[in-house]
Amino acid sequence: MEMHSKVQEYLQKTGYKSFTPKAFLFDMDGVLFDSMPFHAKAWKQALANVGVEFDEYTVYLNEGRTGKSTVNEAFASQLGREATDEEIKNIYEDKANIFMSIAKTQPMPFAKEVLEQLAQLGKKIVLVTGSGQKSLLSKLNETYPTIFSPENMVTSFDVQYGKPHPEPYLMGLQKAGVNPNEAIVIENAPLGVHAGVAANIFTIALNTGILKDEVLAAEGANIILPSMKAFYENLPEILNL
Ligand code: CA
């Protein structure tokens, strides 16, 4: 990894004079939890239940949207209209129930090591997720004890727009009390990368799913790594800046 040249590119593009990462803003699904295969199946099924076709690759492409935005996206492309509030509520509930019935969600390998190391070094850690899946949000504390509390979490309950809008990451910066050039975003989804880049934050994409690297590069990812393990292995170089 050529971290130095990637940082130079970042500085040139954003106009910042320095890059001093003090805060790490983590997406949840596909980054902290290996949950995306189950989300993809659950969305596909919940939308099929109301006669809307939505394949798993499209779920991955749209990952990071709020539930409402995902339903509207599917309705707009398939039915040519937005969904009603009641349809959104019912479909999202159905999706959450299907997810809970099929999910064997595991922590992302090496996420715990990464979080513990950052915490030990006094780095600020913030969760920034478009998810409102309560089963996963409560699992965060079990899986990564002492790391997350409401003060360092941005979820679908906090935001108005959601990813790909920069809003969730701007809120994440606020919660960490840092500027964009003092943070790093860790994302796996194109819309999440887009949101991080739009917030002017150095954005590292972990390609943990089924998408091609090009999709993440097209959204402006500063670095693309194949896994959380690779991120962990590169952490010394990333932190040495
Ligand atoms: Ca994600």
Write the layout of secondary structure elements.
Elements: H1 3-14, E1 23-26, E2 33-34, H2 36-48, H3 56-62, H4 67-79, H5 85-102, E3 106-107, H6 111-120, E4 124-128, H7 134-143, E5 153-154, H8 167-176, E6 183-187, H9 190-198, E7 202-206, H10 213-218, E8 223-225, H11 228-239
Parallel strand pairs: 1-4, 1-6, 4-5, 6-7, 7-8
Antiparallel strand pairs: 2-3
Helix pairs in contact: 2-3, 2-5, 4-5
Keywords:
241 residues, alpha/beta, Rossmann fold, DNA polymerase, domain 1, 2 domains, six-stranded parallel beta sheet, two-stranded antiparallel sheet, 11 helices, 8 strands, globular, binds calcium ion
Average pLDDT reading: 94
How are the strands of the largest sheet arranged? Answer: 5-4-1-6-7-8
Write the H/E string, N to C: HEEHHHHEHEHEHEHEHEH
Strand content: 5-15%
Overall, the morphology is: globular
Helix tally? 11
Task: Kindly report the name of the CATH homologous superfamily of the largest domain.
Answer: HAD superfamily/HAD-like
- Main sheet: strands, sense, barrel: 6 strands, parallel
Number of separate structural domains: 2
- Named at the architecture level, the CATH assignment of the largest domain is 3-Layer(aba) Sandwich
Helical proportion, percent range: 40-55%
What is the CATH topology descriptor of the largest domain? Answer: Rossmann fold
Beta-strand segment tally: 8
Instruction: Give the helix/strand class.
Output: alpha/beta
Hetero groups in this structure are: calcium ion
Intertermini distance:
13 Å
Low-confidence stretches: none
Subunit organisation of the chains: single chain
Radius of gyration from the alpha-carbon trace, in angstroms = 17 Å
CATH uppermost class of the largest domain: Alpha Beta
